[in-house]
Amino acid sequence: MIPYGRQDITQADIDAVVDVLQSDFLTQGPMVPRFEEAVALHVGAQYALAVNSATSALHIACLALGLAPGDYLWTSPVTFVASANCGLYCGAQVDFVDIDPRSYNLCPDALARKLAQAEENGKLPKVVVAVHLCGQPCDMQAIHELSIRYGFKIIEDASHAIGGRYQKQYIGNCRFSDITVFSFHPVKIITTAEGGMALTNDEHLAERMALLRSHGITRETSKMTHEADGPWYYQQIDLGFNYRMTELQAALGVSQMQRLDHYVARRHELARRYDLLMDDLPVKLPWQHPDSYSGLHLYVIRLQLDKLKLTHRQVFELLRELGIGVNLHYIPVHTQPYYECKGFKADDFPEAIAYYRESITLPMFQTMTDDQQDAVVAALRKVLCS
Ligand SMILES: *Cc1c(COP(=O)(O)O)cnc(C)c1O
Description:
The protein contains 13 helices and 15 strands.
């Protein structure tokens, strides 16, 4: 089976992790700050907080922004559940904004309409999570302008987008957001096995997230309520968690970071090749915004079902039978039973549902060979044209 995504682990990665195993610190040593610095420098953000997953990063990002019971968090329905769940962790309510049919990202026009309505009802969101689906950045400038008008905070869920650019600048520099989150799960662009990071340019948010990832404990006297009792002393001044990244993960991250730009460039080569090889097939190819350089975590096609005798599900199943590890990103979150119970109906977000009925994620990963890619296209051609 050709997987839809997979990690690339080199001997240098393995050596970096083994070095940590033989060092004094398996956790809370020098590698986590080194990894944070490498990512912050690369993307151009002032502060970076490494944590044990992007889900944890989203959680502490929401808490740092003050999301609490009575507040609303809005996001796209076409995302992984974690982009929405972080709101529920904070006791806030979650709502969704339908996607743009071309970019598949949260639609700024739909957002503007929903905000105008929410203002009348007194239910404006405190936080909007903008998800860069497939690595393609959202229209951040438009979302940022709306945030000024309506006073909400912005988290970029850039789990798919490290190494990508928006208006020629690296995603993660938080130019149009309060906090940006990356994921380092093995299917993503670079990996630390499990892992995530929150980036910000706001010192106060960085301090809050640093506290929250480690029990709410500080060792800085300036943050304590009174002078230290002695050299052993620390204070818990907030309710935090253990969301720390290990030194092994961070060492892997530092090593992987050196290949980030190369990885994204290879993904662009593969995407261009897919575009060319499939331009006569009854599928809609992914649209790329001319002012952005996608991280290209995923390559998603939409079937032109009116030109096919097969159903979406049949095409999917036949491709799997032919050894092509296709996938679907994502089942719209508002249709998940846990969210359905909160009163969402499938057709509340019709563009998301239309997307779900036609979409297939084709395999794409940095070490994919041209031969593997040819096999994917041949299988798709066989299924769609016979
Ligand atoms: C993978 C992913 C997450 C969660 O990442 P983890 O590191 O696995 O917690 C969140 N949002 C999106 C859009 C993702 O793709």
